[in-house]
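1st attempt posting a full record on here, be nice pls
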Amino acid sequence: MPINIQVGKAAEEETQQNLPEKEEKKESSIKSNLKIRKSLDGNLLIYDLEDLDIVVDQNKGKIVAFATDGKADDRAYDAQNRFFKFLVKKGVIDPSSVHSGNIFGTLEGKIVEPKDTNLNKYDIVLLVLDKWIEKEKPSDIYKKAVHDKRDEELTDPDDDESTPLGKVPHQDTKGSGEKTGGQGMQRPYEE
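the predicted structure (as C-alpha cells):
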C-alpha cells in the first residue's frame, strides 16, 4: 500500500479540513511555575523546596521525596511527613504504600490509579504538587531568611556584638606551647 506525504501549506490545509468541527485545540487552564526537569528515563525531578527534592517516577508509578543535599535531619523528615500526609489527604497516594525508601533519608509512596481512564494521573499529581509547594513556599522563604540572617550575624557582627580590639594580628605561637624554632615540643630526655 503506497503512503502519500504532503509537505508545506498543502499539508496544513488538508489537516485543517480533515479535523472535525467540534474539536478545537484545547489549552490548559492550569498554570504552574514548578522547577521541573525530566531525567533520561522519564522521571520528573522537582527542586522547588529548601528541605526536599521530589521525584515522580513515571515508570514505577510512585513519588519519592529526598532530603535536599543528603541532609536527612528532623526538618527534612518533618517536611516529608507533611508532604505525604497532604498527598494521602488529596487521594493521590495510597496510604498503605508510604514507607522509607532504599536510600537513607527518603520516603516514597505509590500513586493510585484513577478510575476515569480519560484522566492522566501525572497531570493530576503535578497539579497537587504545585498546590502543596505553594502552601509550603512562605515557610521556606521564612526559613531561608532566618538562615541568611544567622549567617550574617556570624560573619559580620554588629559593633555591640564584637570586641573593641578590632582586628587582632595572629601570633607566631599559639596556645600555651613555647617557641621552639620549628622543632616542635622537645622531650625532657632522649634515650
